[in-house]
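Technical annex, item 7. During the second reporting period the consortium partners agreed on a shared format for inverse folding records so that results from different sites could be compared directly. Each record opens with the tokenized structure and is followed by the designed sequence. A conforming record, contributed by the partner at site C, is shown below for reference.
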């Protein structure tokens, strides 16, 4: 049995064993047991995860893929013992699932060959649940992977860069050509790894921080004193040198300081 790739689900099945193993090997040897693979498709990455980690859960929206995975990785053949399953399949949409319920608030690494059309949303959901996600790695459209890991000073640097790097250390690992997929996408892919920072809370109102970052980059060509007008900045605050900068010039730390200044100005 083979699974037909479905365009509306953004499916491009990886068929290179070496690359699948390289992606599995991006997971560190830290002491947590749970791994969640999103969008396993035909399981080329799954089998290497099963060799590497004590407990693997896959979440798949495509019912045809679910049947294939059930046939290929029968649960009864891969139990650690009679009380704990090594492999679990969840049929459903990761973006609509309650993350805390799935793993009962345990730590879980996220990995996958992510559908391009929802990859940024997957990252944002991991950020929302960062308390339970010590690391996150996988394959994206190359442009998105680069944006996540990019540092300030680049035109690629943006909302996704700042909000991810506020809580995770991001590393671009390697590029993957279209030829190793079926069907091949029209662009290169990139694999990244995110490791949660030791201190993954911010010394500011996080909702305000998110709003400041998103508002600033929505008009990224403007200086901050113009793009952040909606925050009703006082005339004295607008004279601060930081407001003469454009958003791509600010590091994550500078965005934190900017949010602190705005909070104090509005208090």
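Designed sequence (site C submission):
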């Amino acid at each position: 049995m083979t699974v037909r790739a479905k365009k509306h689900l953004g499916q491009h099945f990886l068929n290179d064993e070496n690359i699948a193993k390289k992606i599995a090997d991006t997971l560190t040897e830290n002491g947590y047991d749970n791994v969640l693979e999103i969008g396993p498709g035909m399981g080329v990455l799954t089998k290497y995860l099963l060799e590497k980690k004590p407990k693997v859960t896959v979440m798949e929206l495509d019912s045809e893929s679910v049947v294939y995975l059930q046939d290929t990785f029968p649960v009864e053949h891969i139990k650690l013992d009679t009380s704990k399953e090594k492999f679990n399949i969840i049929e459903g949409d990761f973006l609509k699932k309650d993350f805390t319920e799935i793993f009962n608030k345990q730590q879980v690494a996220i990995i996958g060959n992510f559908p391009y059309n929802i990859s940024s949303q997957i990252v944002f959901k991991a950020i929302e649940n960062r308390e339970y996600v010590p690391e996150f790695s996988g394959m994206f459209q190359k442009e998105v992977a680069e944006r996540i890991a990019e540092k300030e000073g680049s035109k690629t640097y943006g909302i996704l860069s700042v909000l991810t790097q506020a809580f995770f250390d991001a590393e671009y690992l390697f590029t993957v050509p279209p030829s190793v997929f079926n069907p091949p996408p029209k662009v290169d892919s990139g694999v990244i790894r995110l490791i949660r920072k030791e201190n993954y809370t911010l010394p500011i109102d996080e909702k305000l921080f998110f709003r400041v970052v998103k508002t600033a980059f929505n008009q990224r060509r403007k200086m901050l004193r113009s793009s952040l007008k909606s925050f009703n900045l006082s005339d004295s605050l607008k004279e601060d040198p930081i407001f003469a900068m454009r958003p791509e010039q600010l590091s994550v730390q500078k965005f934190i300081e900017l949010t602190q200044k705005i909070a104090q100005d509005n208090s």
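The radius of gyration is 21 Å. The first strand starts at residue 13 and ends at 14. All partners now use this format for quarterly exchanges.
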